[in-house]
Amino acid sequence: MSKDEKQHPWSTDLNLREGDIGYSLLQQCPYPLGMKKVQALEKQFESETSHGGNGTARDKNSSNALVAKKRAKALSIATSPGKQILMNGFMMWMSGKNLNIFSISITSMALMSPIKSIFGINYAFKAFEDPDGKVDLQMPKLIFLALNLAWLLVGLYKMSTMRLLPTTSADWSGTVVWKELMEISSIPPS
After folding, report:
1. Theoretical Cys-Cys bridge with 135: which of 88, 93, 99, 130, CB 3.0 to 4.6 Å?
2. With contact defined as beta carbons under 8 Å apart, do 82 and 137 qualify?
3. What is the rounded average pLDDT of the residues 167-171?
4. pLDDT one-digit tens code per residue, 29-73
5. DSSP labels for the chain?
6. End-to-end CA distance of the chain
7. 111 and 159 in contact (C-beta within 8 Å)?
8. What's the 3-state SS for 106-145?
């Protein structure tokens, strides 16, 4: 008896071994329908792996599958800022137009996060680069850049609605050059 059987006397081993009573009887039973084909395929697979036949075709299929997975994952990374745009847009809408610490922190996060992402675009896609150049990352990088720029524009629009950006003519009144009068007269012009 093994250690497990001593602890659990009601447990039974359902694996049939060569020395067991019903083993020879079970070997005489006919195979279930289709089982001979499965065994033939298993033998063929074992012989191919032992001799190395058709290994290149299998390697190509696995490398194509790996390239497809890398492309799909790179595209999911590229579209991830789109989710952030919606979430931050809702948070900025909820913070209101008043200047307070919450609205300023939300707006600054909406500006800094896309800027950091744009400057770190190569780092974001570094895991998907292939030394052979099979994985084309140009389109995912462009999508990533476009979504981050859209996110940045949403943050700039929020700053504009909070009057933190100089968008009106009154904001530029300090730069207006006033004309100096050359002559002064007390007689009004006629």
Report:
1. 130
2. no
3. 82
4. 777 777 777 777 778 777 777 665 555 666 777 778 888 888 889
5. --HHHHH-TT-------TTSTTHHHHHHSPPPTTHHHHHHHHHHHHHHHHHTTTHHHHHHHHHHHHHHHHHHHHHHHHHHHHHHHHHHHHHHHHH-SS--HHHHHHHHHHHHHHHHHHHTHHHHTGGG--TTS-S--HHHHHHHHHHHHHHHHHHHHHHHHTT-S--SGGGGGGGPPPPPPS---SSPP-
6. 125
7. yes
8. HHHHHHHHHHHHHHCHHHHCHHHCCCCCCCCCHHHHHHHH
Q: Virtual CA dihedral for 13, 15, 20, 25, nearest 10 degrees?
A: 130
Q: What six digits make up the tokens of 13? A: 């081993």
In sign, the C-alpha dihedral spanning 15, 21, 24, 27 is: negative
State the chain's maximal CA–CA distance in angstroms. Answer: 132
AA identity, residue 106 = I
